[in-house]
Amino acid sequence: MKVGIVGGTGNISTSVVKLLQERGHDVTCITRGSSGALPYGVRHLSGDRNDLDWFVPTVQRERFDAAIDFIGFTPAHGAASLDAFRDVGHFVQTSTVTTVGQTADWLPITEDHPLRPPVPYAVDKVALDRMYQAAYLDRGFPATIVKPSTTYGRKRVVRQVGIDTRWIRRIREGRPILRVGEGTALHHLLHVDDAALGFVGVLERDSTIGQTYFLVNPQPMEWSDIHGVAMDVLGREVEQIDVSAETLYQLDPQRFMMVPGVFAKNLLYSAEKLQRDVPEFRPVVSLHDGLADAFEYLQSHGLVDDVPVGDWEDRVIEIQRDARRRILEG
Ligand SMILES: NC(=O)c1ccc[n+]([C@@H]2O[C@H](COP(=O)([O-])OP(=O)(O)OC[C@H]3O[C@@H](n4cnc5c(N)ncnc54)[C@H](OP(=O)(O)O)[C@@H]3O)[C@@H](O)[C@H]2O)c1
Q: Which residues form the NAD-dependent epimerase/dehydratase domain (predicted)?
């Protein structure tokens, strides 16, 4: 198939482009060219999707058989993609499980769960998803909605208190790291290469048109175990110090935005519908191997942040330890 990708050099889309090429598809990516180069053999349309005078006619001329939009975030993006890809045979919108919200009426959460988007990012994703669903119902626009949960790889590693690379440095230096509420909350972490199996499997099947799928690792893990695997990979065990989600949020609402409502909770999503319709979606990258690859890439490319001694995490850890000592000493 002639496949158009909006994005292609990002965290998830890099793996999707690689798998599409391996499966023999003719791939064209639309990026501004600032986030890295595309693999040999992938065509590049260089431009900004927000420049509609360029984006819409350029994409229309291509007459793609299929497309995936990785950077549709606003209703304006939806209107532009509906116009630009109006002749496409299958269109996949990248949405997010965050559209569901921060409370579950049942577990595991299934695709028919009510949507209570908690942040503007998710409100806009819901609006976008509804545009594509309406276009499918009204005029047969061949849309599928894919909703990933936390997806990690070389361009994005995640721990319980957020998305950063500082914990790699801390573990390597033998410094403790924070976790929330004893780290017992369960979370789905999916490697980008496994996410690619889901995206490509959906795209290659007409039977998925009109459907919405969660794209999650069917095997959730406790955060303290996730941190433990990272320590195994880095060859050093450090103490995990507990702090409440609310304390972190009040300390820095921007940095810890995802902690109280998502990373501190057991928001479990079902992978069953995707595995039923795309049987090859069976994650094969172990957390150990996925983190080892990501850490090695980040370290060898100088992408692991420095962590000055006495930074915010050291201070929170010291105060938590002190409070514990005083409670236990009466
Ligand atoms: N990772 C997760 O855990 C997760 C979870 C749920 C949902 N999602 C969804 O996954 C999608 C992100 O996919 P990703 O991780 O592959 O993307 P990403 O890492 O955010 O990368 C963005 C890609 O899009 C290109 N791009 C960005 N702005 C552009 C613009 N204005 N015009 C043209 N190209 C542009 C970038 O290249 P240039 O910079 O060179 O333009 C790059 O190729 C989002 O829709 C997000 O909501 C991710």
A: 5-208
Which of the listed residues 70, 152, 157 should we mutate to test ligand 1's pocket, taking the one with most ligand atoms within 8 A of CB? 70
**Ligand 1, pocket residues at CB < 6 Å:** 7-13, 30-35, 48-50, 70-71, 94, 96, 148, 150-151, 155-156
In the prediction, which pLDDT does 330 show?
82
Topology classification of domain 158-187+220-267+286-324:
UDP-galactose 4-epimerase; domain 1 (3.90.25)
- Residue 36's pLDDT is 86
Task: Give the containing element (helix H, strand E) for 166.
Answer: helix 166-172
Q: Rounded to whole angstroms, how far apart are CA atoms 137 and 4?
A: 23
CATH of domain 2-152+189-215: 3.40.50.720
Q: How many CA atoms lie within 13 A of 87 on its CB side?
A: 10
pLDDT in tens, 47-99: 999 999 999 999 999 999 999 999 999 999 999 999 999 999 999 999 999 99
Distance from C-alpha of 234 to C-alpha of 227, rounded to nearest angstrom: 11
